[in-house]
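Forwarding these from the shared drive since the link keeps breaking.
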Amino acid sequence: MDRIANGTQLAAMPAPDAPSGTPGYFGRTADGAPGPTKVGRDFLNRVQEEIMSVILAAGIDPVYDAYNQLLLAIQALIAASAPVRVTSAPMAITGTSVVWPHGLGVKPFSCSVSAICIAVDAPTGYAIGAEIELPATTYTGQAGPPGNGAALVKDAADITYNFSAATSITVAISGGGGNADLNPAKWNFVFRAVK
């Protein structure tokens, strides 16, 4: 779609006339209107510009004899505003900090880190494949506060999970009834982010 081009068009939109009466709806004499509703240049220019603003906002070049550009523009704008979700590959738990370069190019709207069991961890009671979402900020280690802590930090390039020691990430035992430290050799981290 493009703006009207039939030889009678103006190069620039004229200043609109002052409104007459209260905004309303199309009608005819049988509906109680003073006559058939006149469709004037101002109304048609407004409709045309409403449609054109969507097409142009989507970055689409108007094509006069295309009949699907409004649809394409709406689809493009929805796709551009849809959340982008990314997930890391499993990452070994080493040291006291694990960094994942998320590749989003902007600071994520939200993010999380989970521990994924890769080998049976008897003290915790979890089996291979079990996933525990770790809190973004928490205390780790059975000693609890104030000794050990963890934090999930995000920026435009990376998500980092900092913790006091790989051997002091404490979780509730599978099925409840106590706590146990994760064995880092039997768990990986998986990061998730949404832009």
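-- next protein --
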Amino acid sequence: MVGDEEASIVDALNALRHRYTYVFTTGGIGPTHDDITADCVAKAFGVSIDVDPRALAIMQERLVATGTEMNEARLRMTRIPKGADLVLNKVSGAPGIWIGNVIVMAGVPSIMQAMLDEVAPKLKTGIRMLSETVRADAREGDIGTQLGEIAKANPEVAIGSYPFFDPQHGPNTNVVLRARDAQKLASATRAVEDMLQRVRGAQSSGVIGPRSFRACTVSGPGRVARAALRNAGVSPFRAKPSCRAGWMRGSRLRMTGAAIADRLLTRS
């Protein structure tokens, strides 16, 4: 964001318009004294600015239709840098500005959207970016390393992971893949889907219910825990053969089977 300061706006425009295909600005082309964007655009391009007959005609037609009179403030909105094209505004009349690769639009969201709709079909575009979204049904931390390996093997495909919370099943992740080549995108997507299937398959051997919790065997309490979980409506699970890792280490002596079941059901 650039404030209403002439030097800052001019510097930003001159820096960005030489680096990017298009520069879009919003705000600062209204009727008040601090609406200085049009003047700054003219200064950045080294051209004059004055009342534009095309913009004036549009505004006069709009004012007649709404029963409003022209005044000095509204006349400010017809000032256009020399050599610029107008960006039509079907909402309130006052046009935007298109000069070089700089497109100047209103700051009011509904008016800006109307102006953007006008210019969008005229923009030069490159190769279309394709994307695929895969629901992981796994936590981001469970697939981070594998995604990194797939990304390394598919350098022309951008792969991102975005965690979210599913009210029914808890923490989850969306994997988004983007590429310009449809075949490369499809290949990387298959690699992600295959990896997710392997991860979910590996987890299923030690998972209880839909929450992806792991459990380990603790002789007597372990059997009681499984029975308590079944009574609580949780699908039966296969327990790991040892109790060397995780929070259940040492639970044999300190926790009852019911307590273990409670911890498993409530652990996040």
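Strands lie at 23-26, 49-51, 79-81, 85-87, 96-99, 102-105, 130-135, 158-166, 170-179. The chain is about 45% helix and 15% strand.

- D.
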